[in-house]
Design goal:
binds NADP nicotinamide-adenine-dinucleotide phosphate; 8 strands; about 40% helix; 9 helices; about 210 residues; two-stranded parallel sheet; alpha/beta; 6-stranded parallel beta sheet
């Protein structure tokens, strides 16, 4: 697939690298320096290149939205018209200092995103996993015991593309259901992040927890 990465930080940079190594054509976009985008693309290998959000969106089969919540409007504006495009969102609707969800209980980041780009095909994927485990999960992808990754959404086409990318990244699939389930997954993802970044176990703890879930 042609995959456009909107937001090439911790999550977008690593996920795009894994997907490029898995054989997808990846365009990294949206960082504060073009040099950084080029550096990530070089490190990701021959299937990857750097571009603008509009270039990433133009021919993409799937876009990965991997920016902080406050940057969502800006990156979508730069990407242009996303009618008919598949957008897989890693974004958690967090406040500026990443301490609280700013959408919750009666809605979710995914449902709010669907209102912003109503003509795009949207699903949530990769938002419940710490980016730090992506490389090791990919390296271990041929093992029988792969960690599971939840995804959700109301759009069938977006979910079908999500399943391909999730499998290619080395995870087994857990279809958590419709978009409203994101109201549960987003706080769950915050818990995983707390375990990964603030708990004593670091990313390994969250990884073991995913395996335990099997
Ligand atoms: N990191 C994780 O493990 C993780 C796990 C689950 C979900 N998520 C979600 O994934 C999303 C991305 O998280 P992240 O940790 O990858 O964040 P991040 O490392 O801060 O990446 C955000 C990207 O946006 C770019 N950016 C920010 N402001 C910009 C601007 N004004 N102009 C151009 N580029 C700009 C950053 O550029 P620079 O590279 O130049 O800083 C960076 O590449 C968030 O919604 C988060 O909740 C992340």
């Amino acid at each position: 697939m042609r995959v456009g990465i909107l937001g090439s930080g911790l999550m977008g940079g690593k996920l795009g690298t894994v997907l490029a190594r898995a054989g997808h054509e990846v365009i990294f976009s949206y960082a504060r320096s073009k040099e950084k985008l080029k550096r990530i693309a070089r490190a990701a290998g021959p299937n990857a290149r750097a571009g603008t959000p509009a270039e990433a969106a133009r021919d993409a089969d799937a876009l990965v939205l991997a920016v902080r919540w406050l940057q969502v409007a800006d990156v979508l504006h730069q990407a242009g018209d996303l009618s008919g495009k598949v957008v897989l969102s890693c974004a958690l609707p967090m406040n500026a200092d990443d301490t609280e969800l700013v959408v919750g209980h009666t809605s979710s980041g995914l449902e709010e995103l669907a209102k912003i780009v109503p003509k795009a095909h949207i699903a949530a994927a990769f938002n419940s996993v710490p980016s730090e485990v992506l490389f090791s999960v990919y390296q271990a992808r041929r093992r029988a015991n792969r960690p599971s990754l939840v995804y959700c959404g109301d759009d069938r086409r977006a979910k079908v593309l999500a399943t391909t990318l999730i499998r290619d990244a080395g995870f087994d699939l857990v279809d958590a259901g419709p978009a409203r389930i994101a109201r549960t997954i987003e706080p769950f993802a915050l818990l995983v992040a707390q375990l990964a970044y603030e708990g004593k176990g670091g990313p390994k703890l969250a990884y073991r927890w995913l395996r335990f879930g099997r």
